[in-house]
Amino acid sequence: MRYSRYIRQLRIQNMTRHVRTAIFPVAGLGTRFLPATKATPKELLPVLDTPLIQYAVDEARDAAIERMIFVSHPSKTAIERHVMEDARLTRELRARGKEDVAEALTEAAFCPIEDDVRFVMQPEPKGLGHAVLCAKDNVLDGPVAVILPDDLILGSIGCLTEMADAYAKSKTGHLVATMEVPEDQVHKYGVLSVTGKDGAIVTADGMVEKPAAEDAPSRQAVVGRYILDASIFDALETQKPGAGGEIQLTDAIARGAFDLGLGGFQFSGARFDCGSKAGMLEATLELATRDPECLAVLKARGLVEPASAVAA
Question: What residue stretches are annotated with the Nucleotidyl transferase domain (predicted)?
């Protein structure tokens, strides 16, 4: 009897560690990319030939996320049009004999019948923490993932897949993606107060949002992937405004660090800050080197050395 109860408790524990919901905060105005984002949401800006939001969606799909929640703004209806299936466009493409294109669009888009997708609005820019809180009434049971499309992470295994696997095996309540940054860059990030290391996870007892270099507790900076215990919503409801007068997600996470445990996951992929022009260019060039046609252009312009020259 005791053994059966023990097995049942293990199963319940494993279920409660399973990440079923992903939240995409996409309500921002994208001011750093104006005038390009005056009519086109920054999440739809392409990195080579694929919009940022598509990379984020594909990463969540690879991690077997069941429900996708987009926290958007009433002015950004184009995001919903992009991620959802467009039956009329697909029919038109098929009628013109463009079966491959139609099939690719169908595969990339969400089906309104088969897929579990929600759109909620954040009418005012009150911070990332407030954006996550807007999704509260739509999440499934258990921990939730938060994906910031601005942070493009490219790797052989999706960052969220890696994190979800590590989270399921850990006792950490909140797990955030982290990377080591130069000292002169820490003021741009939330930074962990590191206490130790366990494999790919650095343990921490707190987090500081955008500290000055001399005040930073470490150089482990938080980037745009989070797996958060469901209690994060209770914390956000009582969270006072922080840096910039906004409800900071990092502040709410830090409040639960002691009771829940906080970890930083050191992912294997390469991260590109596509919220900046330089980061977007860097990501585009990286993906261009993987495309034979684009690579030929880069080589012709001397931006990439030909393989024969490198070998010599």
Answer: 27-287
**Taking Cα atoms as reference points, which of 168, 67, 57 lies closest to residue 117?**
67
Cα–Cα dist 43/158, whole Å:
19
**DSSP string across the chain:** -HHHHHHHHHHHHHHHT---EEEEE-----GGGTTGGGTS-GGGSEETTEEHHHHHHHHHHHTT-SEEEEEE-TT-HHHHHHHB--HHHHHHHHHTT-HHHHHHHHHHSBPTTTSEEEEEE--S---HHHHHHHTGGGPPSS-EEEE-TTEEEE-SS-HHHHHHHHHHHS--SEEEEEEE--GGGGGGSEEEEEEEEETTEEEEEEEEES--GGG-S-SEEEEEEEEE-TTHHHHHHTPPP-GGGS--HHHHHHHTHHHH-EEEEE-SSEEEETTSHHHHHHHHHHHHTTSHHHHHHHHHTTSS--HHHHH-
Q: What confidence tens digit (pLDDT) does each residue in 18-40 have?
A: 999 999 999 988 889 989 898 89
pLDDT digits (tens, 9 = 90+) for 237-294: 998 887 777 888 988 998 888 889 999 999 999 999 999 999 999 999 999 999 999 9
pLDDT of amino acid 2: 40
What distance in Å separates the CA atoms of residue 178 and residue 200, rounded to the nearest whole number? 10
- Per CATH, the number for 23-297 is 3.90.550.10
Q: Where are the domains of the chain?
A: 23-297
Query: Against a cut of 0.85, is the pTM above it?
Result: yes
- How many angstroms separate the CA atoms of 302 and 310, rounded? 13
Residue whose tokens read 């929640």: 69
pLDDT at 306: 61
